[in-house]
Design brief:
mainly alpha, 2 domains, disordered N terminus
Length: 397
Amino acid sequence: MTTSALPPTSGPRTLPTSAALHVPWSLGAVTLASTCIILGLLWDISWHRTIGRDAFLTPAHVAIYLGAVIAGLTCGGLALKTTFSDDPAQRGVSVAFWGFRAPLGAWVCIWGSFAMLTSAPFDNWWHNAYGLDVQILSPPHTLLGVGMIAIQIGAMLMVLAHLNRAGESSGALRGLYVYCSGIALLMVATIVWEYTGFANDMHGSLFYKVAALSLPSFLLAPARARRVRWPATKVALVYMGLTLFMAWTLPLFPATARLAPVYNPPTHMLPPTFPLLLFAPALLFDLLLPRLGNRRDWQQGVVLGVVFVLTLLVAQWPFAAFLMSPAARNALFVADRWDYSSTLGPWRYNYWSLDRDAAGNWDALGFWSGIGLAMLIAAASSWIGLTRGRWMRGVQR
């Protein structure tokens, strides 16, 4: 592929006002595809926890693969249209690959669509050969997950390229950019959900290490791109809003388990766990980034990494205790909802993954050493996000 910067002969980088305010249908289509994928994924996790993997073509799977088809057809059609177009402006904001031309984000979506659709028969064979729900990160699930992330990042890049070329842009276009960035954050948070989704894990350093590794980059990259006000905060709120939408909607539908053994019979679809309070570190990111000035990215990454871990610790530590209390066992906070295969017991009100010494007691030194390591991990993740965000500011194609 060629570079994403526009060539000098491609004309001005600022679109006419009417073009800048227009939201192309392709952006709406890939945003719809990204939405189908992430909502289908949350639905699928609920399906596995409530009903079990009773068939391949469940409604949740259909939603996920529908997103792949929409993204593939939309971006494939866009590639053909751009390749055979006589409009030099349209070709000038595209990237060449194997003789075809399309926006960079469209190529990323096309690759993601191929990966997802390739994983489908592979996943079905894997389950038939090795059993149901053997592990989340199996080879076909990994390929599927990478493909889903690719489509979500590709959709964000397509919107971002249009924003970067525009002299001024509509609120709808800026809203699409924030929304697509929030979906990408939710996708990553869902991948690490087994380590970060349960309040029982939030008093151990492992929770903060995993969160530090996965989340700061996806908050800071759109924030560094600076195409909207309060970008990181808005991205975090999209993540929370979509999660809560599914958490409050899925339990409205009755369901029963279909695979034995059933130790905890459900009556309704299980919701996702309550989202992390990422708006807290995101708000500080938005406040600090302008004040860090022209410092090197690695220096900013160190500051922001420490801020991320400490803010998350202050927010999630007491909130975890609340989520494990009777006050959170309601339809609002959806706490204390367990899989049909879980044998209920006192373990669900205990903290897991605690840092312990050789005698089995809570190890304060080990915990704070783990928090220190989480800060280093968050610094590296923040640096990656800042670097990626700087590159995103120059994406024109």
